[in-house]
Amino acid sequence: MAVMTGNITIQSCKPTDPQPSTADWKAHVRAEDFSVFYHRNEAVKKVTLDIPVGQVTAIIGPSGCGKSTLLRAINRMNDLIPGCHTTGLLALDGVDIYGPQIDVTALRRKVGMVFQKPNPFPKTVFDNVAYGPRIHGVRRRAHLAEIVERSCRQAALWEEVKDRLHENALGLSGGQQQRLCIARALAVEPELLLMDEPTSALDPIATDRIESLIAELRGRYTIAIVTHNMQQAARVSNLTAFMYMGELVEAAVTDRIFTNPQQRLTQEYITGRFG
Ligand SMILES: Nc1ncnc2c1ncn2[C@@H]1O[C@H](COP(=O)(O)OP(=O)(O)OP(=O)(O)O)[C@@H](O)[C@H]1O
Ligand SMILES: [Mg+2]
Q: Is the distance from the beta carbon of residue 190 to the nearest atom of ligand 1 less than 6 Å?
């Protein structure tokens, strides 16, 4: 299918509003009238949204509004759910993620995912991080060791695990386990990292480390993060998308969403009047 290389068009409710500083952003993921159904329930409703390359996009909204469903659609994690189907377009680098030509294994290599609850495998630290590269055919121990070190450094974990590589990962703290999961995702050199409430099970210090890590990864990776924490969205993201009951209400530069939202619903949500 056609490759789309257009600049970002932020969905705005007032077309006459100025569009601040997004002119250079290129879409990495583009949703156009994209819906996700669980049987007849339309959990994501005709969403049109660009997730810009190299930026951090926060997806916010009340419980059940479809944030996780939209995020999971990007690496086809919903495929395994019976009765789940999609309509409209969701494209990665201009290629339809749900098109017949897509190789789901290759897609998931490009699009890594980190979940709410740290979910290391009951294996050693080393084997957790080496897991993806091994699946993709890396066999040489020295090469795997290089990948493990690089990924753990990128995930700001190396100093804490370099002497514990052969211990069970389940012995790490919750915050270390979550950074291990990020290292595991980074080990296959994805282009895009999906994070679904990655800090909601962590204490403030561990949360702070993950937020700093997101700031460091910005630019090198495209990141989409679902969060219930408004301050976190404001701190870590450049673009914020607000969803409500399956619909995208508003997406704009984060500063604007938090200082001058265009929609009353957005205003009410960010000021804590519901959610
Ligand atoms: N596996 C599933 N099977 C059927 N319906 C589902 C499934 N997962 C989610 N849903 C429904 O889809 C809608 C959106 O759910 P989703 O988990 O995407 O919301 P969310 O915004 O991530 O919520 P939360 O903030 O609570 O995590 C809800 O109505 C939910 O009940
Ligand atoms: Mg969710």
A: no
240: left (phi over 0), alpha (psi -120 to 50) or beta: beta
The answer to whether the CB of 68 is under 6 A from ligand 1 is: yes
Q: pLDDT by residue (tens digit) across 30-70?
A: 999 999 999 999 999 999 999 999 999 999 999 999 999 99
Q: Which residue's C-alpha comes closest to atom 25 of ligand 1?
A: 63
- How would you label 113-123 residue by residue, b for 16+ Cβ within 10 Å and e otherwise? bbbbebebeee
- The token duo for 51 is 């997730």
21 — pLDDT class (breaks 50, 70, 90): low
> Measured from the CA of 44, which atom of ligand 1 is nearest?
14
pTM: predicted TM-score of the whole model, two decimal places: 0.90
- 68 CA distance to ligand 1 middle (Å): 7
Q: Judge if the beta carbon of residue 64 lies within 6 A of ligand 1.
A: yes
DSSP bridge partners of 195: 114, 225
**Quick one: which H or E segment has residue 133?**
helix 125-135
Whole-angstrom distance, CA of residue 22 vs CA of residue 251: 12
Ion ligand 2 residue ranges (Cβ < 5 Å): 68
Distance CA 138, CA 144 (A): 7
254: nearest Cα among 230, 271, 275, 272: 230
Question: What residue segments make up the domains of the chain, in order of their start?
Answer: 27-122+190-270
262 C-alpha to ligand 1 centroid (Å)? 26
For the domain 27-122+190-270, what is the CATH superfamily, name and number?
P-loop containing nucleotide triphosphate hydrolases (3.40.50.300)
Ligand 1 centre to CA of 244 (Å) is: 12
CB of 256 closer than 6 angstroms to any ligand 1 atom: no
pLDDT digits (tens, 9 = 90+) for 184-194: 999 999 999 99
